[in-house]
Write a sequence for this structure.
């Protein structure tokens, strides 16, 4: 008999973090402190499991009980396209209660389960277009910390360190509110100039600047970046305004990339392409509602001869890079001179995305998404199960 989905659980557990977010959601280094994280587990009637680390705010009990369990329980977990569509169709009547991220977490767990059932890593199930990808170092946002990322010179010094570690590409996140004085086009240009001068012409550089510049501020910044031979210009304005991005992309030679945070899954991405709002499309395993719709965006872009870059780190985004080669980079970060990104937190046995001396990440060979979870830690530190 075909196995069907039997149990869907979210376990809240404690672990240790060395970063924290500011009131605007930007992550910075912090002293080690206890935090709660969450694991979604989907189990089928044969005992096969799909597991993924999630943000529990998107999978509260009401969301699980009203939408996710009714849509999935008793269904064949391998029929991801059908299950994703049935969940996505529930979004309209959920009045904002069933988010794209919730869809994404469920889809990731189903891909992990499929990997465990077949004994294959997800990047291979997605077609195995390649088995590794170059990483770009994605910095944390600018701050006010001495020796951190407080000045253009700090960004330049950190960029030199990153190149020494093997990275061949670096993306800056410059100063954003609530940092006093941020944002500032002049300061952004100073940081981008300092980094280019520090690393020379052979390192690819990108900028992800304050997300709420005006059109004219974004244009001024973009023109400076193209003079500095930057590789792409990311999210300088509110992404809901597609016509602003078309206005910007029409006037710049440097590739404009997007959208990253815009809601609307693969449908919004198609609008960006046909509107001419970007030169490089953007997707992400949880940004667009899962690996399933993210693969659609990669292939959509490919059919327009466009690159489609994957936003964010983690096992789902790494797996997604196996679905094509027009997502050229893996975004590794967020990095900071006072934070050891390679330190393994207590709920993991190893990091999934170690880089080699050339800044390349080799995809994991473990079945499923490949996260090396310490299930004993998670079990013994579980404080609540939804
Ligand atoms: O604003 C930030 O803190 C970063 O931009 C962050 O959201 C990061 O995920 C990003 O945009 N990467 O490209
Ligand atoms: Mg970004």
């Amino acid at each position: 008999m075909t196995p069907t989905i039997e149990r869907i659980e979210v376990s809240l557990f404690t672990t240790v973090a060395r970063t924290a977010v500011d009131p605007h959601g930007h992550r910075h280094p912090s002293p080690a402190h206890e935090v709660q994280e969450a694991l979604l587990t989907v189990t089928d009637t044969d005992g096969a499991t799909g597991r993924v680390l999630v943000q529990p705010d998107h999978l509260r009990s009401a969301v699980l009980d009203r939408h996710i369990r009714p849509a999935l329980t008793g269904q064949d977990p391998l029929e991801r396209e059908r299950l994703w569509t049935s969940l996505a169709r529930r979004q309209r009547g959920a009045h904002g209660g069933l988010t794209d991220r919730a869809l994404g977490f469920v889809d990731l767990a189903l891909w992990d389960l499929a990997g465990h059932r077949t004994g294959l890593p997800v990047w291979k199930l997605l077609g195995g277009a390649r088995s590794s990808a170059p990483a770009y170092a994605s910095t944390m946002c600018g701050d006010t910390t001495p020796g951190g990322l407080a000045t253009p010179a700090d960004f330049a010094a950190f960029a030199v360190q990153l190149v020494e570690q093997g990275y061949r590409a670096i993306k800056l996140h410059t100063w954003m509110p609530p940092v006093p004085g941020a944002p500032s086009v002049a300061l952004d240009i100073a940081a981008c100039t300092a980094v280019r001068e520090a690393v020379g012409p052979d390192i690819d550089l990108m900028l992800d600047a304050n997300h709420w510049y005006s059109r004219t501020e974004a244009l001024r910044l973009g023109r400076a970046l193209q003079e500095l031979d930057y590789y792409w210009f990311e999210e300088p304005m509110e992404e809901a305004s597609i016509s602003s991005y078309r206005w910007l992309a029409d006037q710049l030679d440097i590739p404009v990339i997007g959208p990253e945070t815009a809601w609307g899954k693969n449908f919004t991405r198609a609008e960006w392409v046909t509107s001419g709002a970007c030169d490089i499309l953007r997707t992400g395993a949880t940004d667009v509602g899962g690996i399933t719709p993210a693969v659609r965006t990669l292939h959509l872009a490919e059919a327009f001869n466009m690159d489609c870059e994957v936003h964010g780190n983690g096992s789902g985004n790494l797996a997604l890079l196996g679905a094509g080669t027009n997502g050229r980079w893996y975004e590794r970060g967020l990095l900071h001179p006072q934070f050891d990104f390679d330190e393994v937190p207590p709920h993991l046995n190893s990091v999934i995305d170690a880089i080699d001396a050339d800044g390349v990440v080799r995809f994991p060979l473990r079945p499923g998404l490949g996260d090396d979870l310490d299930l004993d830690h998670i079990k013994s530190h579980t404080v609540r199960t939804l």
